[in-house]
Design goal:
This protein is an all-alpha fold and 98 residues long. It has one domain. The chain contains five helices and no strands.
Length: 98
């Protein structure tokens, strides 16, 4: 395996996996001794957090769309179509006619 992939696999094992207590202690020592590894681990944690937040936002949007489809008022499309037709034809409103 390429060294970059081994490095990423090692990061993922410690950030997402279930390392043993001994591995965790060794990892903490390595982080203190290697600032590049510490920076990579921090960046990877930020990426995982960003992916988590993006997934939550997408789920909220999908749930909102489902809610809108289930509970929107009936014939909304007809009201919008008539309003757009009025706009397109530029019919005066009732208050303007008087």
């Amino acid at each position: 395996m390429r060294p970059e992939l081994e490095h990423l696999q090692r990061l993922e094992h410690h950030l997402l996996g279930h390392p043993t207590p001994t591995e965790t202690i060794q990892w903490q020592v390595q982080l203190q001794q290697d600032p590049v590894l510490a920076a990579d681990a921090e960046l990877q944690q930020h990426l995982y957090h960003g992916i988590l937040l993006a997934g939550r936002q997408q789920l909220r949007q999908e749930l909102e769309e489902i809610h809108t489809q289930l509970y929107r008022p009936r014939r909304t499309w007809l009201r919008h179509a008539v309003a757009r037709l009025h706009q397109a034809l530029r019919w005066p409103t009732r208050s303007a006619r008087r």
